Amino acid sequence: MAHELATMVDGRTAMAFIGDRSQIWHGLGQELTPDSPLDVWATEAGFDWTIQESPVTFNTPDAQGIHFPGKQVLYRSDTKAPLSVVSMDYKIVQPAEVLEFFADLVGVGGMTLSTAGVLFDGKRFWAMADTGKAGAIRGNDQIKGNLLLTTSCDGTLATNAMFTAVRTVCNNTLRLALESENYGRVRVTHARTFDPANIKDQLGLIDHSWEKFMHNVTKMEATKIDMAKARSFVYDLVAKPNVAVEDQPYTTAAKVTDILARFQSGMGNQGKTAWDLLNGITEYVDHSTGKTRMLDRKLWNTWFGADATMKDKAYEGIMELV
Asked: Looking at the structure, do residues 180 and 314 belong to the same domain, yes or no?
């Protein structure tokens, strides 16, 4: 069993996972030893270092070591690589704290820590646990519930905890908490101290988010969608707003064609449904969009960038259809 860190094409990303290798996020990662102490998982996931702080100084032609008041540089304890320059009030979340967040949820809470990763040279890191919640549509279209915790130390992202759904047949992801209520997602800025107990209280029970999500999925599956309606929906989703059809970028038609092909090849045998349409979109977003060769950026975008926004918009729009 291999325990070395995974190295991405740009040499910047480490990731570890537990379970079926076919479910590795975007083809990344190395197998994680099941039922191990957190310090073992920290080593395997690339979390075995700390974020250190140092005052910011700079040199000029006339002077050396001038202090920059109110600013500090954050750097890795192992490589000494700089991570960011932040204010003195910036509240750091250490990589190990991300794993420790799940300590009392794993086993006692019925969850299983499944995946952990370090992205962008250590500037962002995350861990995901299998909540034990699962459902199926048409008997063999499996959906699993996960709890994802992400944070950064470069000022780009607050600490986020959220429930997600994963369609296991193609490893598509979708955030569960899309409604205005607070269940299922919590955001804590780095102006506040990381408080795991408070975050867990705010998250609420996954039962609420999961049951509501599966109720919506059932409604989607019961709603038939013909090709004309699907094409119109997808076009509105990907086209530039307030731009005539003839003036749309050439990529718009390609996106529509790609998504509709995925919609048509969905698992439904008795006519395509709104659920097939949603999965055609999420599969396209998670596995096809973007020109970047940086896989860490691609993965991040599926959770928090424009890709995630597109999936949220698709989910909300399809719920209006059903």
From this structure: no
* Nearest residue to 126 via CA among 97, 103, 92: 97
127/72 same-domain check: no
Alpha helix ranges (H) inside 124-243: 196-203, 206-221, 227-238
pLDDT digits (tens, 9 = 90+) for 91-134: 999 999 998 888 777 765 678 888 888 888 899 988 888 888 88
Residue 273 to residue 137: CA distance in whole angstroms: 12
Query: Quick count: other Cβ atoms within 10 Å of Cβ 273?
Result: 24
Residue whose C-alpha is closest to residue 27's, from 130, 170, 174, 128: 170
* 107 and 81 part of one domain: no
Residue ranges for the chain with pLDDT beneath 70: 1-32, 107-109, 169-171, 176-184, 204-205, 266-270, 289-294
HSE-CB of 232 using CA atoms within 13 angstroms: 7
pLDDT at residue number 11: 37
For the record, the structure tokens of 266 come out as 């969905």
Alpha-carbon Rg for the chain, nearest whole angstrom, is 21
Same-domain status, 200 and 239? no
Residues 231 and 198 in one domain: no
pTM score: 0.81
Look up residue 224 and give its DSSP letter.
B
Both 139 and 285 in one domain: the answer is no
Q: Could you give the C-alpha distances from 131 to 17, 144, 259, 265, in angstroms and in order?
A: 15, 8, 30, 29
Calculate the alpha carbon distances from 45 to 110, 111, 133, 245, 297 in Å. 22, 18, 24, 47, 18
Find where tokens 């096809």 sit: 288
